[in-house]
Fold these 2 entries.
Entry 1:
Amino acid sequence: MECAVVIHTEEEFDWNGGFNRFNDNVSHHTQFTTTVKQLLDIGAKVTLALDYAFINSPQGRQAIEELVGLASPNIEFASHLHPWVTPPYSESDSEGNVDEYHSFAGNLARDLEFDKLKTLTDAIEALTHHAPTTYLAGRYGIGENTYEILHALGYKTDISPSAFSDFTSMGGPDFSSTTNGHYVKQGIEVFPHNSAFLSVVGPLANYLNKKPELFTRIQSSTPLKLLSKIARVKKLRFSPEGVPIYELKRIYSRLQQTGHQHLILSLHSSSLKSGLTPYSTGNTAADIGESTVEIMTWLLNNNKVIPSLVSEFSRLEKANND
Ligand SMILES: [Zn+2]
C-alpha cells in the first residue's frame, strides 16, 4: 500500500465565519515547515496542496522558498483552490464577501473557475519552478467543468473527492456513494481523500466500505440505525484532525483488508499551530503535528506502507470510468 501525506496548505480563517477575500492571514509558517521537515526526516513523502493566499503572503512564500531550497524529491507542490481568496474576484461583493454556494469553485461559471485556477497554477509554477500536476479543490468542490479545466491546464491527477461525504446541504458535491477506490474521469486520474467505516462487526465494516449505499439506507431506517449503533458503526476521516491515533490505526487496517492501494493522510497546515482551527483549539486539542509524525512513523515501521507522493501513486493501466 502506498501512502501520501497531503497537507492543505492555506491561510487562516474562521471556519464557521463565512468567506471573505480579505481573510488571508498566515502566521503558522514556522510550525508548518517544522512538521514538513520532521516528516521528511522519518522517510515520509509530502504532497503540499498550496493555495493562493498562502503563497501570496510573505510568510507563506518564505516557507515554500525554504522547502524548495531543500530540493527534496520527497516533496510535491500541488494546487489547492480556495476561490474566495484567489483573483479574479468577480463573484465577491463590495466588502469582499462570497456566499457559501460560490465557495465551491465547481459552482462558479466555467471561465471564472478556469481563470482562478490559472492564476493559482501560474503562481505555484513561478514560486516552485514546477508546474503542479495534482489538484485539490477547496472544500472538495469539484463541478461539471472542473475536469475539462484541469486537462486544459496540464493537470494529471485530482484528489478532491472525499469518500463517503455529502456536501449538498452546503451547496457542494455529493460523494456519499464514492468509495476510496481510484478511477479515471475525462483523462484525469482521481484518488479520493480517504475515510473508512469502522465497526466491531468486521464483515459489516468491509461491506460498508465497498457498498456505502447501505449506510444511506441505515440512516433512513430507525431499526437499522439501532442495529448499526449496537455494531458501533462509525465513519472516520483518515486524518489526525479530531481522530485519535488508535482510530487511525483501525482505519489503516480496515482499508488494508478491503484491498485499498493508495492511502491519503490529510490535514490542514493551519491545524499545526494551536488555536487556529477547530482541531487545534480547546483543552482536548491534540498537537496535530506530533500526531501526524506519530501515525506516519507507525505506518512506515515494518513496511506497512510505501511512502509516496500523490504524483507517484501507481496508475491505472487503461481503465476509464468516463
Ligand atoms: Zn482548504
Note: The pocket of zinc ion is lined by residues 8, 10, 80, 82, 138 (CB under 6 Å).
Entry 2:
Amino acid sequence: MYDVRFYKGNYSWRQKQANRDKCTAYVEHHFNAAVNPNSGYSLVVTGKLASDTSKSWGRLYAKLVAEGFKVPLGGTGGILVGGYNGRGNGNLKHTKMPAILLEPLFVSNPQHAEWVRSSAGQEKLAKILADSIIETFADGSRIGFSIGHKYKTSRPRDRGAAVNGGGAEADYAEIVMEKAKHILENYDASKQAPPPVVDNEEDVLPDNDIRVIKDGKELWLHVDVDEDDDVVWDEESRILNITTTQ
Ligand SMILES: [Zn+2]
C-alpha cells in the first residue's frame, strides 16, 4: 500500500525530487546530540510554515517515542516549529507535502545510544515511524524518506553526531528507516486485526420474582414479572396489581 522512496543529494534537491514524485509525506531522520550526556528527550522539528498535518504528525511521533522509551517530550508538546534558530527549516521548507524532521533520541546519552545501537531499539523506532505514518496518512501511497547528513553532494563524508559506544548518527538513522520502509511496504490494511468482537448478551434472566412469605415460609411465588412491569400495592383493597408493559 505504501511506496517508500529514499531521496539523496543535497537537502533542497531531495525535497524537489519528492515534490516531483508527488509524495504524500516527507520525513528526514536524525538523532539528537548534546554536550550534556544526560540530555535526553523526544523531539520533532517542523518547518516554520508547517501545516497542521505536519504538526499533528510530529506531535504523534514524538509522543509515541516518549511513551515507547519512557523519555520526556521536548519542544512544545514534542515539536519545535521552525527548528533550532532556523536550523532544520531548510531541511523541510521546499516540500509541498506534510514534512517532519525526527530527533527521537540523544546519541550522546549512553542509555539512548544503547537503544539506538540495538536491533530491538531500531525496530521499535521503525515501528513508531511506520505507525505514525499509517495513522496520519491512512490512504497515503508514496512516502519520501531522507537520511539526515548522509548522501549529501556538498559534504559526502558527513554522518552527523558520533554515537556513544560507537558508530554515527546517520548510519543508525538509515538502519531505522530501512526497517520502517519494510514495515510500510508490507503493510496491508485489509490484513489488519478485525474490529473487536462484541459478545452477544448473556442470557441471564433477571430475578424479578414476587413472593408472599408468612413466618419465613413462602406461600406464593410469581415469576413472570419484567423490570418494566408496573407493580403497585393497593393499600385500600390490599391487592398487589401487576400491569405488564409491552
Ligand atoms: Zn543530525
Note: Helices lie at 11-20, 52-69, 110-117, 119-136, 169-185.
